[in-house]
Every structure is written in C-alpha cells, then in structure tokens.
Amino acid sequence: MNGLRDHEFLYVQKRNDRTKAGIEKTVYGQLPDGQTADLYTLHNAAGMTASITNYGGIIVSLTTPDRNGKFEDVTLGMDSLAGYVKGTPYFGALIGRYGNRIAKGKFTLDGKTYTLVTNNFGNHLHGGTKGFDKVLWTATPVEGDEPALKLTYTSKDGEEGYPGNLSVQVTYTLQKDNALKIDYQATTDKPTVVNLTNHTYFNLAGGAKRDILDHVVTLYADKFIPIDQTLIPTGKLQPVAGTPFDFTKPTVVGTRINDSTDTQIKYGGGYDHGWVLNGTGDSLKLAATVYEPTSGRVMEVRTDQPAVQFYTGNFLDGSVTGREGFPYKKRYALCLETEHYPDSPNQPNFPTTVLKPGETYKTTTVYQFSSKKE
Ligand code: BGC
C-alpha cells in the first residue's frame, strides 16, 4: 500500500538510526470490523519521533528531548490499538466534524434545523459517538527530510447528523526543527459547519507519571470564553485580567486551578475553557508556551485559529490504564486544542464555522519542542 510494504523503512535502515529522517510503517492491529490499522513512525534527523495510526489519526507517541538530550514520550496514550478501540477520552486523536461542544446537538443553517448525536450531558461533543477519532483514515506517507503522513477521509452526508459530504485531508509533518505541523483541509457539497482539531494530552515531564500542576503555561490571550454548568459558552467574552484565567505571563498551572470562589473554575472543574487568541488574520501566531521545569522541555503552539481550548485533564480519574499499565489520573496531562469557539453554530456573535460548497476550509497548527537549562 502506498509504495510502502509492511515493515519496510524509508531512509532509515534501523529503528535506532536517529541520524536520518524517514518513515517506518508497521501493522498496528485489526479493528472489530476486520479492517487493518497501521502505525507510521516519522523520524527527523534530530532524533524526534512521531508515531501516528490511521485509526482516528491518533498521535500514539511523540518523543522529544529533555535538557540532557533524553528522548521521552510527552503524550498520554495506549499500548495497543485495542486500547484505543476500547475507548479513551480522545487521546492524541483527530477531532471532527466539530471539535468541542454544540449545545443540545442542534443548529440551524439556511433555515433548516439539524439534529446531531448528543454524547455529553445532552450536548454534542467532538463530532459525536463515532467522530473522526474513531474512523479509519486512508494514509499516504510522504518522503523527504521532513517526513509527512497525509490522511484522508470522506464523511458522508448525514454522518452523526451533519449535512453534506465532507472530504477531509489532514497532513502531519515532522519538521527538522522538532516541530509537528498539522495541516487540515476540507471541502463540502452542501453548506455545513466544520471545526477540526487534535486532542493530544501532553505531559512534558515525559512518561505521564505525575500531574501537570507544575507546568508553566503562557497563553497569548487577553480574553476567555465563559461557560455555563454544561460547559456551553454564555455567548459573552471576558477579560482574563484579575481572574485565575490570566496566563498572559508565564504562570504555574496549579496556582489557581482549585480557586472554588471563581464560578468559571467551578464549572470547568479546573481549566476547560476557550481562550481567545490575540491578533487577527490567517497567519500563524503564537498561541501558547508550556515549560516543564524538571525536564526543561518547552512546547510552543502556533496556529491560525481564533481560539485554543486549554483543558487540564480534570475528568481523568485513573480509570483509563495507559501505556505500561499506568493509570492516568486527574490532571496528569493538559490539552491545547486549537479551534474556533465552542458552540459557534448557535452563537451569532462568534466567528463563523460555516463551510459552503466551492470554499476550502484550511488551517494549520504547529507544536514545536525544545528545552532550556532552567
Ligand atoms: C473538553 C473536555 C472533555 C475532554 C475529553 C475537552 O476538549 O473540553 O470537557 O472532557 O475534551 O472529552
């Protein structure tokens, strides 16, 4: 398939040859319907790896160096395909058609009301019960110094309740500079709504063996999107200044995460909100910087999207056993999901997420890794 036979290596002769860029493909496993999912490991010349399966477009692992050059996985994930099929809270997955929530699973477009699958306290979350995180994508590895994996999927008219046949293409590129770039593209044959993202859970300490409360986060956002008890936006934006949501300067995550005097913290069970990114236009802008002091790892997130959902793993409760049989507990990871505002299809004051025939939805997010001494 795609010119790459199972276990065949492009450029790399051995798995431990970290001097050359390339892609390795292996069979990952069989899905309940008999289809086979593959695992592609992208290597760059600097030694960073990104392992991605075409099941859900899931980033299964991402190894990045600490300040001593030690490579460790900085994501939460499972040991096998079966673990993902059994169910995770979207570890590493591509999310669509609509990342985040749509209130009561309903929206009206051109006078017609559409009813979506509801899967989160009466609301629609992350594309429904079988979103893009649970479908098998067609994968095409792209050779080069910056290896890439192109994933395509056609979502049928009516899937999970959405109108229009939607053709989606997502390309993961492992850049020379230890950045993973994600390019999203989609077209439709009927007016519809689209909001694609990736749901990787990060713990920059490596191995996800403890919580992320010591991570230092900067969000380049002066406003955030307040929510109600069901995590649906109220429709108004609020300045972060003077609130526990102010991450405009590097801030230790744990400092105010339990400030129960703040209603928004209470509703989110911590941070589970959209931040409105400063700056406008379609160019890539810095959305977030994360620093983990024990390892020295740094992650910078750049995007052309208007918002980022900062989620601190508040719903993790140890019930999902991840890699090496390790239970992922509350706040063992953080997510930075670049996207449009939640519930935009029902919020006339939010930037539009409507995609019409003849238009191309196009967006890019880059997660770049480095380290610093202290
Ligand atoms: C949402 C959380 C949700 C998590 C996993 C995040 O994007 O904001 O509320 O629990 O995804 O589903």
TrEMBL record:
Belongs to the aldose epimerase family. Pathway: Carbohydrate metabolism; hexose metabolism. It comes from the Bacteria. It holds the Pfam family Aldose_epim. This is Aldose 1-epimerase. Transmembrane segments: none annotated. It comes from Spirosoma telluris. Its main location: cytoplasm. GO terms for molecular function: aldose 1-epimerase activity; carbohydrate binding. The active site is at 199 (proton donor), 337 (proton acceptor).
